[in-house]
Amino acid sequence: MKRFAGWLLAAPATALVVLCLLVPVAATIATTFGEAKGVFSPYIAFFGSGFRRNVLWRTLEISLATTAISVVVGFLTAYVVVRSPGRIKSILIIAAVFPLLTGVVVRSFAWLILLGKNGIINDFLTWVGIIAEPLSMLYTQGAVIVAMVYLFVPLMILTLVGVLENIPDDVVQASASLGATPAATFRQVIFPLAVPGLIVGAVLVFTGSFTSYATPQLLGGERQMMMGTLMYQRAMVSFDWVGASTVAAIMVVVTVAVVLVMARVARRLNPMAT
Amino acid sequence: MKLGSFLSILGSVGVAALLSAAPARAEGKTLTISWWGFNGEKLTQFQVDPFKQKCGCEIVFETGNNADRLNKVKIRDGAGVDLIYLTDAYSQLGIDDGLFQKFDASKVPNLAGSYDLGKDPQGGYGPAYTIGRVGIIYDPTKIKTPITSWNDIWRDDVKGQLSLPGITTTAGPMMVLIAGAHAGVDPYADEDGAFKAVEELKPSVVKSYNTGSELVNLFSTGEISVAVAQDFTLAQIQAAVPTAVWADISDGAYATLNTVNIPKGAANPDLAYEWINFLLSPEIQQVSAENGIDAPIAKDVKLTPDQAKQWTYGADMIASLRQVDYTKLNAAKQGWIDRWNEVFGQ
Amino acid sequence: MKPRTSPFLIAFAALVYIFLVGPLVIVLGAALSDTTYLTFPPHGLSLRWFEKIFEVGAFRTTFVTSFQLAFLATALALLIGIPAAYALNRYRIALPSWLSTVFVLPILVPEIVLGFSLLKSVTVGAGAPIFPTLLIGHTLIVLPYAVRVVSASLASFDFSVEEAAISLGSPPVKTFLTIVLPNIRSGVIAAFILAFITSINDVSTSLFLTGPGISTLPIAILAYVEQYFDPTVASVSVLLMLLTVAVMAIVERTLGLTFLTK
Q1: What's the CA gap between C206 and C221, in Å, rounded?
Q2: Which of A56, B156, B175, C262 has the most crowded CB, counting CB atoms within 10 A?
Q3: Residue from B1, B3, B214, B294 to probe the interface with C (highest C Cβ count within 10 Å)
Q4: Looking at residue C89, which CATH number applies to its domain?
Q5: Model confidence band, residue B9 (pLDDT cutoffs 50, 70, 90)
Q6: Residue A141 C-alpha, separation from nearest chain B C-alpha, in angstroms
Q7: CA B176: distance to chain centroid?
């Protein structure tokens, strides 16, 4: 009976994903195996190219860095937000959303203004006397990470606010009244209870940054090519859909692997987490 | 407010949205055009409305950039639109993929009034309706020695000041041609030689740009002072950097033609031919040029020097342009893209 | 008495918010600039780039389409996603563990591949009209937010309260609406906000799924900046921010003053 009820409730969503996502995408990825040169030839070509292996590695580095930074920053900020008095809390939550609403074109312009040769930060550092020549901050791996963190911290904050709010106050107070220091309470009570939300957020941030296209394109260009830009190039410029689907298939495998690892870690930290 | 009432409000908004989202039923004939979709108001005023009056038909648009729209036509196997606007690099791709029908020039009498290079640029699949060029824009207050040749972008004083079109843009692959010319080799035959010259350019390049707005931002914030660009960006760049000029290149700018093609699955090819004829007519060519829509491909358009300065215009200028053989270029393009990525990406 | 939040943490959070809001100041400044190109600080102040938005026909129509799409996709995703999240938590033992991964699949697949595949299979293959396919695409990409964010909220919900109510004779659906849902309100709101924003901003999936007569706002903006390089792009961003905030404020109001009470 329970199983039936469970499946019934989950059925519409499952049906949508299977019919409209799994089947069409599987069909697209299946085309990568039909090349005349061999069943795995596109994949061999991919991994055989030093440049493309580099792109995969760089994308992993950048997304992991973005995820780590966003999780920590987002968690700490969400913690403060959740403990703010009512009206301020609402404002903070709404303010956290704004960065997500800027189009990528204006956002990259804003980064140009901030990080450019004649930008605000360089002007400030020169004026204060820390540097003599403007720093070249744009179009580096760091710039891409900063721009992505900018997009994903709000995501973390929003995800975590919902979770942290549901950690009952009395549990926290009980812990304090039993003599635990704030740090210990945090480590042994709040953190494990927040793990489901942290993992959800981390997954969303990792996959978002790993498959990202627009931000790496504008902030990194060809110097910092990532899997998303590579795939887009294949699909939209060369019309090489087999090539693009190959990149996509590799991206899916990598993200699934990382997500599984994250879920494993989550279970260790909190056995009740999904 | 209770959750229940919220859900019912959401539901009714949803239903209202769904109903109003249903596409309008077209009465009578409808011409479906695929184009970029900017210049909207001017196009409506000077081209769309007059044509609608003439033909008594409806016009529906599919908008986007070259790649998206061509991709969609391809996925739909040449169906879905009656007419498609593309830059010549992309229309050549469409032709190679067999997506367009052969063009019947007899249905378009106004074709006779175009410059020769625009009449049939691609072996019988559709004419050009406008012309532009790729050249160099720079700021003489930052680059003191004038730029008079493509070779000048390899100069030392350009280091760290240059932006090139991304290899995936229209003008991008032309850089390989230019590099080949600089190295004195035929880039199709000697790819290595051409790319050696591209590598020499690397320290000069700050970033490649993929859109006009990116280019303008790079100029306006002072990140660059020189760029290889298409002429339609000049006016906007000058608004931000009034001292910027179009370099007078002795070895010739490259021509870019925008074409109109009829996909093989077009539902209303006759309407499409009517539109093309309309587009190439002397009146529309004149009006479009005067109002900042497109440079004229018709020979007889007369413009004042002020009107002409933003366009590729005039028999002499057009005769001085270099043309790209897109069949060859498209064949080599994927390889060039990969090599370009490798040069700049490591 | 709640333990005081460390001042260091508060200072940190303040810095984070400066980081988040800083670029927005630049965007706003650029939108108000009386120049034909993006610049900051603005040279002269003018609202003309806001007026321009309404003059561009493409923006007017796609604004409406995008908001319709976002509402519908979010509503649909919540409608099928909340039950799924509930099932995943309540009947966790009865369901296979891989089921939760199913609902995350849409974000694992790169969006343009999703759009491309949908166009091929659904629009071309099954002959479906454009708007429904676009809607399916958007619902798919926001579904992970609906399911996972709500699920995370449900993870700390004490189901024994629900079971008690049922054992006292309350019908299951009513119990869900009056006991479970109010307790996961923050999760639902967060999911709504994230889903709505994802749909409004989406480019990659919509790229292929738009067609003759139907396009979305972000795509119209992209087309615009290919030829016009003026501050309209900044003013559209500002307008989008304001409208989305209005939507969020309405949502918060109708679902109850959650943030003020909990």
Answers
A1: 13
A2: B175
A3: B3
A4: 1.10.3720.10
A5: low
A6: 12
A7: 19
Cα(C67)–Cα(C60) distance, rounded to whole angstroms? Answer: 11
Q: What is the DSSP letter of B107?
A: G
Neighbours of C196 (CB within 10 A): 24
Coil/strand/helix, residue A221: coil
Rounded to two decimals, the pTM is 0.82
Measured N-to-C along each axis, helices C130-144 and C111-118 cross at an angle, to the nearest 10 degrees, of 150
Provide the residue type at C131 as one letter: F
Contact C223 B65 (CB under 8 A): yes
Best residue in B92, B99, B334 to probe A by mutation, most A CBs within 10 Å? B334
Determine the structural domain holding residue C77 and report its residue range. 57-260
Let me know if residue C11 belongs to a domain. Answer: no
* Closest CA in chain B for residue A238: B334
Which of A166, A171, A269, A270 should be substituted to probe chain C, the one whose Cβ sees the most C Cβ atoms within 10 Å? Answer: A166
- Residue in chain C closest to B218 (alpha carbons) equals C38
pLDDT digits (tens, 9 = 90+) for A95-124: 888 888 777 777 878 888 888 888 888 888
**Number of folded domains in chain C?**
1
Confirm whether C137 is domain-assigned: yes
DSSP code, position B36? -
Residue C96 lies in a domain: yes
Which of C20, C103, C116 lies closest to A96 in CB terms? C20
Q: What is the ipTM of this complex?
A: 0.85
Strand partners, B263: B100
* Minimum-distance CB partner of A89 among C184, C221, C259: C259
C39 located within any domain: no
Position C261 confidence tier, pLDDT thresholds 50, 70, 90: very low
CA distance readout (Å), B170 to A216, A222, B174, B333: 21, 16, 8, 11
